[in-house]
Design a protein that fits this description.
Elements lengths: L12 H7 L10 E3 L14 E5 L4 E5 L24 H25 L1
Parallel strand pairs: 1-2
Antiparallel strand pairs: 2-3
Length: 110
């Protein structure tokens, strides 16, 4: 459910205080734990280190990101891959194809 228009967007005041009067190009990444904070136009150009629960992920703010939340750009879960016998077979075929292509390229270069 979205936030009421009457209340306005939630922007953490500590973040605004950290960027106030600073040059976006000269400031180092700003560490932020407020993932729910909305991205405002004043933040464009700054790099934020958004905490994902384990580490800080650097996010460069662009104009397309205005209105989104900071947490949307720092995923909290890492996808490793789906497992199983079929995936192992596909990976083996892919490796064999890469080796064959490398051998063909090496032969063509000679």
């Amino acid at each position: 459910m979205t936030r009421s228009l009457k209340k306005g967007p939630y922007v953490d005041p500590r973040i605004l205080k950290k960027i106030e009067g600073k040059d976006p190009l000269k400031t180092p990444p700003i560490k932020v734990w407020a993932r729910a904070s909305m991205i405002s136009p004043e933040m464009v150009g700054f790099t934020f280190a958004v905490h994902n629960g384990r580490k800080h992920v650097e996010v460069l703010i662009t104009e397309d990101m205005i209105g989104h939340r900071l947490g949307e750009f720092a995923p909290t879960r890492t996808f490793h891959r789906h497992g199983g016998k079929l995936m192992k077979e596909l990976e083996q075929k892919r490796r064999e194809a890469e080796i064959a292509a490398a051998k063909a390229a090496r032969a063509a270069a000679k």
